[in-house]
Amino acid sequence: MSAELDPNVLMISTEYPPIPGGVGRYTSNLVNSLKKMGVEVYVLCNEKGHGDYFGLDPSNQNNSQVILNVIDKLNPDVVHVQLEHGLYGLKQRFRNKSGNSITNIEYFYEKCPIPIITTFHSAYPFRQWLKLSKLLYNQENYANTNSINPFKKINEFMVSLSTYYEFKKSNKIKMEKSSSNIVFSDYLGHLISTGIVMTKSISKKNNLFVVYHGAEPTLPVPLERKLARKKFNLPVDKKIGLLFGFATDTKGWDLLGCLNIPHDWIIVINQSKNLYGTKNHSTVTTIEYLDHKIKGYANNGDQKIINLNQGFLTDMDLSTLLYSSDVIILPYTVTSGSGVLFDALAHGLPFIATDLGFFKEFEKKGLGITVKRKPGEFEGALKRLEAGYSEYVQKVEEFKPELIWNNIARQHLKIYSKSILDRRIGNV
Fold first, then answer.
1. Same domain, 67 and 181
2. What is the average per-residue pLDDT within 12-34?
3. What is the rounded distance in angstroms from the CA atom of residue 92 to the CA atom of residue 106?
4. Which ranges carry the Glycosyltransferase subfamily 4-like N-terminal domain (predicted)?
């Protein structure tokens, strides 16, 4: 088979199973689906992952050389980077100095000798970037108790602004250096393209492709909700709103502390601990802290909130948990190409989410509801979704086939082939 149909691919992802995390799970599913199609794929990841090559780490300033060395050894046709910036040492407080870079893979993009495919897993408008910065963190945690020096506040803002500029510039360079770029939605493509209206002609010019985050149940046959709930000892006489994943401030689980949960609903949560997170990092909420908050919730006397506390779930257990639920709840504070959303949709669940651009795109397809990030708004959304539940589920069922991994892998194969052919005829 020719390289156009069967390329040799080096897949780059710091995170890879058994390392817990959505990027690793996504990458593993994509790799397995490509291999089933006969594509030769090799994985470069962190030493804790079960890849083929190792050496990547968020704190490794030599990540670029690690990648280039593997390319030199393997001689693949294309290299595909799963770009979640934090997995490559993103500096959220960055000053541009000689020899310094905002991530530790900038040099790789400058020197890579073969076509690069980049999948952007996230992007941020400036206001949301501030929520990731120390400025907003300090404001939210200390503004009511400590006076903040206004000059320090201005300085923090300027650092955040400068860092955001470098972040956007870095993404632009990555997009230009890549033969093809992949995003999970039109909205993310719009953000990464620095506000370009994503018409078909412009998308083609920038080699930007929207390929949905693949997702499908691990269980071969859909599990009845009652049976699925037995696995986790969940009540069968209530509707379940589910939250799962890394318990970080950006996921907005603090909203649960003020949420007046309707009488016929319960909230089920299951959180994972980020392998690369630290207790001192401003965007990390530790599991212990979350447990403490749940125990203190006033409305938790009759177990309106159930914490499974089972950590990162196997694919089989995750499928079972999703089949046990009625809706996925996503009170995010910042935009993300949410794999949790796609996993839920693949299992037939509509969603309720913060009214961020990414989620609004899927609300327009009738797959869920977006609201202001306020407890009363989420409570109202639960009631609205319950009233029109069958219509939402029908829309989700119609959308599900677009997420099947075989379809996602075929779209990737076309992109790989295009990048290889473009290089051969001198288009890149």
1. yes
2. 96
3. 15
4. 20-129
Q: Is the predicted pLDDT of residue 54 greater than 60, yes or no?
A: yes
Does the residue 220 lie in any domain?
no
Paired with 309 in beta bridges are: none
User: Which of 226, 191, 229 shows the shortest CA–CA distance to 210?
Assistant: 191
Statement to judge: residues 43 and 128 lie in one domain: yes
Task: Look at 257 and 375; give whichever has higher pLDDT.
Answer: 375
Answer with the residue of higher pLDDT: 248 or 286. Answer: 248
DSSP labels, 61-107:
TTHHHHHHHHHHHH--SEEEEEE-GGGGT--SS----TT--SSTTHH
Q: Is residue 1 part of a domain?
A: no
pLDDT digits (tens, 9 = 90+) for 309-358: 888 888 999 999 999 999 999 999 887 788 899 999 999 999 999 999 99
How far apart CA 353 and CA 167 sit, in angstroms, is 26
Query: Is residue 151 in some structural domain?
Result: yes
Tokens of 193: 């393209």
Contact criterion met (CB below 8 Å) for 239 and 326: yes
- Say yes or no: 236 and 171 in one domain: no
Mean pLDDT of the chain: 85
Does 373 share its domain with 414? Answer: no
What local confidence, expressed as pLDDT, does residue 403 receive?
Answer: 97
The residues, any chain, with a CB within 8 Å of residue 111's CB and separated by 6 or more, are 64, 68
Tell whether the model's pLDDT for residue 53 goes beyond 60: yes
One-letter amino acid for residue 136 of the chain: L
Q: Which residues pair with 327 in a beta bridge?
A: 241
Count CB atoms within 10 A of the CB of residue 341.
25
DSSP 254: G
DSSP letter for 381, please. Answer: H
Range of the domain at 352: 225-402
The three state secondary structure string of 295-355 is HHCHHHCCCCEEECCCCCCCHHHHHHHHHCCCEEEECCCCCCCCHHHHHHHHCCCCEEEEC
221 — pLDDT class (breaks 50, 70, 90): confident
Q: Do 260 and 326 belong together in one domain?
A: yes
The dihedral sign for the CA sequence 32, 24, 111, 116: positive
Same domain, 62 and 174: yes
